[in-house]
Design goal:
It comes from Natrarchaeobius chitinivorans. This protein has 194 residues and is mainly beta. Helices cover 12% and strands 31% of the residues.
Length: 194
């Protein structure tokens, strides 16, 4: 069951989000494994972000796939990577467009073919892709504390959506979100990339 999210919890969430963003900016600026090319790090002054928005932190209902399908994801280098579609996450999001109603949306969650892996990989595109966010889509990683079963709930926080490293350097090869994870709405949360 997901925790209540209001008042002090929102304030704490916002503080922790800002701290994570500051840590990531420091990593990108100074760490030897930063995806920012070494000759550009001195002028790097931080990543671009959408403002923190708790309405893009949602509870998703899990549909678990006991016998997961293999999904071949194209990569930025023209290869394919094998993932397993282990769950479908259903959630409600408010649409920013005045003429459209709120809706329920789905994203598939994947894992590499590793039986010890619990972390979920959720790559996605949305209506900000290629305009306010990276043209190759963005990623989220979810770390459930236990194996997920049908009907479980998990927090999906789009404020944690990030740009893959291949946006900053061609030395990285990143999977592209499959079409089943293309959202037909704008999600102005998480990292920007213009």
């Amino acid at each position: 069951m997901t925790e209540s999210f209001e008042g002090d919890a929102v304030d704490q969430w916002r503080t922790e989000l800002e701290e994570k963003r500051a840590e990531k900016d420091e990593f990108f600026a100074e760490h030897p494994q930063s995806p920012i090319p070494p000759d550009e790090r001195e002028t790097f002054d931080g990543l671009e972000y959408f403002g923190p928005d708790p309405s893009y932190r949602v509870n998703a209902t899990v549909e678990s796939h006991d016998d997961p399908d293999v999904v071949l994801m194209d990569t930025t280098a023209g290869r394919e990577m094998r993932y397993l579609r282990v769950a479908t996450l259903s959630f409600d999001l408010e649409r920013a467009d005045d003429d459209l109603e709120d809706g329920t949306f789905e994203l598939a969650a994947y894992r590499l073919e590793n039986p010890n892996e619990r972390q979920l990989f959720v790559p996605f595109r949305d209506k900000t892709t290629g305009q306010q966010s990276y043209e190759g889509g963005r990623y989220m990683e979810l770390a459930p504390e236990q194996d997920l079963e049908d009907g479980d709930e998990i927090v999906v926080d789009f404020n944690l959506a990030y740009t893959p490293f291949c946006a900053y350097s061609e030395t990285y090869d990143c999977p592209l979100p499959p079409e089943e994870n293309w959202l037909e709405i704008a999600v102005p949360a998480g990292e920007r990339f213009e």
